[in-house]
Amino acid sequence: MGKIISIWSVTGKTGKTVFLYMLINSMVKLLNNEVRILVCCSNLNYGNLLNLFEISDSELNIEDLVNLKISPDNKFDLLKTLGKKNNLYFLGSKKTNMNYVGRNIKEYENLIEDLRNSFDLILVDTIWGHENILTNMILDKSDHVVNVINQDKDILDSNDFATDKDLVYVVNKYRDIYPELGDIKSIYKLKEIYEVPDSGELMEMKNKSKLAYYPEYQTEYNRAVDRITKFIINKAGLGDIASENPSGKNIAAGLLKFLMRRRKNG
Q1: What is the pLDDT of residues 196-226, one digit of tens each?
Q2: Distance between CA atoms of residues 212 and 21, nearest Å
Q3: What are 111-153's pLDDT values in tens digits?
């Protein structure tokens, strides 16, 4: 039975999705190449995460699977139906609304359990905040939460930003102002908290649709993400599926080559 790790923020504009993109690339390097990883985006209108991996919204999505499960005559193999690159599988939500989710929340719950039984690790990009019924259900089903928080005391003071499943807190540093990392850790009594540095180069490459190159660079941002990844692997009990050699780098290189070929042919 696989582990579900959700990446969540109490508010928007925390850099959650780009951080998760980089975290996934780091995971691919550090976990062995037999690990089945599902990258799931729960944004109801097909979020940015899968676009960063150049996964088309024409791929099978969450609502397709929910509709298939509603009909008891449908039998399908998840590993053969989802979008895939190397050992990464992808699943997004598409063109739905809260009414549909609310009416079929039990089927969404059943689907999450089917996914847990089909994959070793599921990384979910959730919708920020407390108001989304799908995100709340996924957080409830998650084994752990990676909580990406704002470097803003007013926001932290005015929002219930912690969950009871927080494995680690991540601050995307974007300016040299109060509160610094140590201040946030002390004020809110957070045990495990990491910082990823501000990176203008990272955002420039994202804006130029060249983000696929960035994980290959030796930058302080990438080193910080790798440290967080190693902590997650250790604390979430994923050590038995961690790579004992650099073979995982071959997967990352394969993913990069795939994206480069697609961009060249496109």
Answers
A1: 998 888 888 888 888 888 988 889 999 999 9
A2: 9
A3: 999 999 999 999 999 999 999 999 999 999 999 999 999 889 9
Task: Report the DSSP beta bridge partners of residue 68.
Answer: none
Distance CA 161, CA 133 (A): 17
Measure the CA–CA gap between 150 and 127, rounded to whole angstroms: 15
From the number of C-beta atoms within 10 Å of its C-beta (0-12, 13-18, 19+), residue 215 rates as buried
**Tokens 């004992």 -> residue:** 244
Rg of the chain's alpha carbons, rounded to an integer? 18
CATH of the domain at 127: 3.40.50.300
Give the structural domain span for 121: 3-265
3-state secondary structure of 125: strand
User: How far is residue 25's CA from residue 212's CA, in Å, rounded to a whole number?
Assistant: 9
Q: How many domains does the chain contain in total? A: 1
Q: Which of 140, 121, 70 is nearest to 233 (CA)?
A: 121
Contact 38, 116 (CB under 8 A): no
Reading the block at residue 241, the tokens are 């599926």
Amino acid occupying residue 187: I
Residue ranges of the chain whose pLDDT lies below 50 = 245-248, 250-251, 258
Q: At what angle do helices 248-265 and 16-30 cross, to 10 degrees?
A: 130
Long-range contacts of 163-166 (CB under 8 A, 24+ apart): 163/8, 163/139, 165/139
In the chain, how long is the greatest CA-to-CA distance? 58
